[in-house]
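Lab notebook page, bench 4
Experiment: in silico fold of construct C2
Operator: M.H.
Input chain length: 169 residues
Purpose: comparison with the prior construct
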Amino acid sequence: MNDATVFRQVGYTLENLLAYIEQGDIGLPEIQRPFVWPATKVRDLFDSMYRGFPVGYLLFWENASGGARTIGIGTREHAPNRMIVDGQQRLTSLYAVLKGQPILDADYRTIRLDIAFRPRDGRFDVADAAIRRDSEYVASITEVWRSGTVHKAIKAFVARLEARRPISE
């Protein structure tokens, strides 16, 4: 009997996970179902993370032999060698929203996930036409996470809010 360790715990940061997806190192096994979460479930994931609630573990399978597809749409630098076998919906949601990348839904249609945030009360919502017009909301949190634009996104939000009503320091 082989007593070798079958499982090992790793501490990926969210930044690392997103980079591995973009490079192509993390993918989906061919047998994995497509993205099936409704946008409200994605909203709830961000709300839970914002509030510091646990959102579960991710389980990866290392497999150098291939047989995987990428998360999201487009070509990648590498072929996946780590496949997400538990946590696909969460990881795909994080990638799609934080990177602003399109993904394939359950019907294999290309979709974008837009999640809005209202700083006044810490509320997350699925972005729709009304929310996009509401100056109280950051209409798409993707803009806040784009590399190097956090301060720009905050300034734009404050300017939009200030145009509608007076605000204090």
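Observations: The mean pLDDT is 88. The helical segments are 14-23, 39-50, 88-99, 129-133, 141-145, 150-164.
Next step: discuss at group meeting.
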